[in-house]
Specification:
By secondary structure, the protein is α+β, with helices and mostly antiparallel strands. The chain has a single domain, classed as NADH Oxidase (3-Layer(aba) Sandwich), CATH 3.40.109. The chain contains 7 helices and 4 strands. Strands 1-2-4-3 form a 4-stranded antiparallel β-sheet, with helices on both faces. Bound molecules: flavin mononucleotide. Flavin mononucleotide (FMN) binds next to strand 3.
Length: about 190
Amino acid sequence: MNTLEAIAARRSIRKFKPDPIPEEALTAILTAAQQAPSGKNRQPWRFVIVKEDQRPEMIRIMSEAITRHVAEGDDPGSSEWTAHVMEQAPVTVFIFNPDAIHPWMAHSIDQNFSELVDTQSIGAAIQNMLLAAVELGLGSLWICDVFYAYEDLAKWLGEKGQMVAAVSLGYPLEAPGPRPRKPLSELARVR
Ligand SMILES: Cc1cc2nc3c(=O)[nH]c(=O)nc-3n(C[C@H](O)[C@H](O)[C@H](O)COP(=O)(O)O)c2cc1C
């Protein structure tokens, strides 16, 4: 499979088989992440891997935080469904930026710019993970609904930096077609 084929074949997967992911496949995915470009080659990513033995605790923490939000009158959005997806996936990788501060803290302009650069770098690393997963026959879901349990999950995972996203991985139990995209004519123009 070439790169363009992998880009076209990738889908967000929300149903996973229970089969575990071989250790070599997980290493290949993290190696792909590590090979992404990054601003000033800062490589501003840390990966915290949650495997099946820790999964019930991860889901408990996330579900409790969502329930708390709902009790406070907040809209849980898609977070309950996402937690259900994470419950099936044999592996969820959390991606942190160790140099960034929590989103609710006051940012200086310099901090804002460096985090803007780092977040792009982390996006590239995550996309590499998703494409490597395609190549290895694995499905993936890029997740930001973990923000509903931001403080609780970051504390439990033992990371002080900024939690940027999570990626659930596993063998896919569904084969969705391509999701709609805006036409290129709406998105790009020649000046
Ligand atoms: C930054 C980011 C955050 C996302 N967060 C979630 C999420 O929390 N839960 C979820 O089900 N999907 C999430 N997605 C997946 C998107 O919904 C999905 O990429 C989009 O609907 C297009 O579908 P496709 O990935 O199959 O092309 C996220 C995607 C990105 C890039």
